[in-house]
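Researcher: Please generate the 3D structure of the following complex. Treat every line as part of one assembly.
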Amino acid sequence: MKTMRQKRARIAAVGLAAGGAIVLAGCGAANEGSSAGGASSAPSSNVSGTISGAGASTQQAATQAWVAGFTGSNPDATINYDPSGSGAGRTQFIAGGVDWAGSDAYIKGDELGKAQQRCGGDIVEIPVYVSPIAVVYNLPGVDNLQLSPSTLAKIFDKKITTWNDPAIAADNPGVNLPSTAIAPVNRSDKSGTTQNFADYLKAAAGADWPYDVSDSWPVQGGEAAQGTSGVVGAVKAGQGTIGYADESQAQGLGQAKIKVGDQYVGPTPDGAAKLLESSERVSEGGPHAFAYKLNRTVTDSSAYPISLVSYAIACSKYTDAAKSGLVKAYLNYVISPEGQQAAQQAAGSAPLTDAIRQQITPAVSSIA
Amino acid sequence: MSAPTTTPATATPSTKPVRQLGDRIFAGSATGAGVLILIVLAGVAVFLIAQAIPAFTASPEELPGGRNLAVYIGPLVFGTLLSALIALLIATPLAVAVALFITHYAPRRLAQGLGYVVDLLAAVPSIVYGLWGVAVLAPASLPFMTRLQDYLGWIPLFAGPVSATGRTMLVVGVTLAVMILPIITAVSREVFLQTPKLHEEAALALGATRWEMIRMAVLPFGRSGIISGAMLGLGRALGETMAVAIILSGSGIVTFNLISSSNPSSIAANIALQFPDSTGVAVNTLIASGLVLFVITLLVNSIARWIINRRREFSGAN
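Model: Done. Output below.
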């Protein structure tokens, strides 16, 4: 009995000590954050208040890192983000329910007019999150798969059904391809990843991809799985499977190299950032809207064309001065090198290049 | 409340019943609870109809898929019914067998433990079944499904080609069967236990074996119970969301092929998958599909009621 009781007391003591250590560690981290942040983002050192955003779930992990980093140096600020989806985010922004929206597609057409109406002027739209989408596959014995855009489109359109198809063999000279059936895996839920992947297929292999681009997968009867984790899980579980997923989530799987120009390029954050740089700006949304028509048919082999660019959409002026100050400070942090680095660590995204940052910084500064 | 509750039967022979405050409060709250159920049900129906109307009136191009509303919802209805039907076909005989074993074959101590374990199955959250289905059952069933295709491929149900990951309608049906097993078993067990002992003993006395006794006395008596248990299970299978959403590789097609990677999705799973990123008429369309599911469930339950009522006079119960 006695030993038992002693043992219990000791366990309790260990527990207490561990708890204390966690508390201490928490303090330390908070202090570090504030000192580091304060040093780097000097112009807007201390803003306060609450702002809320909603939209793309692709930005969620990065946004968590941004909010942690930002509120570390601005402890009086509260920032909420509801990853309700791009469409829902834009709708809520237009309705005035949230102060900014995250969206995997830039705002255009009807929605653009409504957004400008809501803001009573120009909108501010900037790319904040750039990430390569990997074409992942599971085919034992084939480690270095290379695919041209048209082969890729035919595979996902179920026109090519076995791995030893001549079209795949032509892309992979000298590789011994098995006769396994191809099982293309797609997202069963709506997704910005699907939209960007389909957009690439449409732009780079339009002849072999006769579908409209949307956030739902257009081909019926493929292997459909829920979420990025579902697709990765399905590709891992099956043989001869091929799917598409955010590159940061695709570890441990084969990643196909895609033909760009006359070379085959694998998914890298640098390649995604490079793609954004070589893309043309869409002039539709006004002086502060930096939407890009991604150059899917890029021929520069340092760029990776299957990439996703997610935007933050805000107003150029808010009626509440405290709110505009906070939105401005937050977005400034998001596009800063520190913010982009935090996102890279948390979500595996590609940091914005300096060239892009120089372009979009005036837009953020214009918020008043 | 000083008088014991058992007295009224013997103590007051007068014609007018005594109504105490406690009686009235209880009667009032019971009535209120009953009415509340109706109000909630009516509220759900009103919500579904009101929100579904824009989908019914919208032009086909605005709807997801860009075609008719029926073209969108039809395959979902088919998938919902097919998955629930498979589940019911597997679960009902199994549940009746388990219930019979518990009530008539197993030693009492084992029966109690087994009954407890079966009830425990009902306490597992459906998402856990979903994860189990996709991580364990789907890969494990691949060799079985390959064999089905090899030997029974001439039946359209098993035409294949077998899915590469095993996330098929058949696996969904089996998972749903496990999920609805406890409710059917529990209801059947309770009914079997209520079989009049005299019927059973009479059958045995006439020289019936135990199986003949069960067939002649227990099963006819319990038939309505089995049916209502099965209908409760069917209700759960029709509305099951997360397990189907996680396991099934679904798209908007109609096929009886149970083992390929092309399967019709179910209404509830489709809503769960599409709702988060849907806006405008797409949301109304999803709610319209929810309305269809609501009507189907209502129909299923009404049919079950009707069957039970029709059978009542033969069953020996009441």
